[in-house]
Amino acid sequence: MRESMTIAGTTYELATNAYTPIAYKEQFGKDYFQDLFSMVNSQAILDKLDQLEEGEELKADQIDVSILSDFDMTFFHRIFWVFAKSANPRVKPFMDFFMEMEEFPVQEVAPVLMSMLNQGMSTRKKQITQRKRARKSSQ
Predict the structure, then answer these.
(1) pLDDT for 62-101, tens place per residue?
(2) What is the top-level taxon of the source organism (predicted)?
(3) Residue 122, by phi and psi: left (phi above 0), alpha (psi -120 to 50) or beta?
C-alpha cells in the first residue's frame, strides 16, 4: 500500500510492503509486530487524538498521565520513517530525516499511519477465477 502525506510543505511518500518489518528490525533492533501490538494496547491516547477537531492540538493538560505509562512517544516517528524507507530505500537515516522536519503533527500523521497499518495487517483472500473452458469429462 502506498500513501503520500504533506507536512509543512514537504510531501513524503509512504509504503508498506514485505520489506517494512525487516527495515524496522534493522534500524531499531525491535520487532515490528511486537511494537505494533504494544501500541494497539495504548488505544486511549489514540482515542484522545481522534476526538480533536480539525486544527485543534492536544494539550498536555488534556491527557491523563496514566494513559501515557505504556505509550511510546516515538512510535509514530519510527513507523513514519520505516514507511518512508519502504517507499524509498535511499531515504535519509532516521536522525537526519527528522532533524530536517520543522514539525511532526502526530494528530495528522497518526490516522494515516494507523490506516496503513490496518490495511497492511488485514488478510485478503484472492478471488479464484473460473476457467474459461470447462474440461470435458472422460466417459
Answers:
(1) 555 455 555 677 888 999 999 999 999 999 999 999 999 9
(2) Bacteria
(3) beta
What pTM was computed for the model? Answer: 0.68
The residues, ordered by sequence, that sit 6+ positions from 90 with a Cβ below 8 Å of its Cβ are: none
What are 15-34's pLDDT values in tens digits? 999 999 999 999 999 998 88
> What residue spans define the domains of the chain?
2-121
Instruction: List Cβ neighbours of 12 (8 Å cut-off, separation of 6 or more).
Output: 4, 5, 6, 80, 84
- The residue whose grid cell reads 472422460 is 138
Residue with the three cell numbers 466417459: 139
CB proximity list for 109: less than 8 A, separation 6 or greater: 5, 7, 76, 80
Go through 21-33 and write b for each residue having 16 or more CB atoms within 10 A of its CB, e for each that does not: bebbeeeeeeebe
3-state secondary structure string, 50-88? HCCCCCCCCCHHHCCHHHHCCCCCCHHHHHHHHHHHHHC
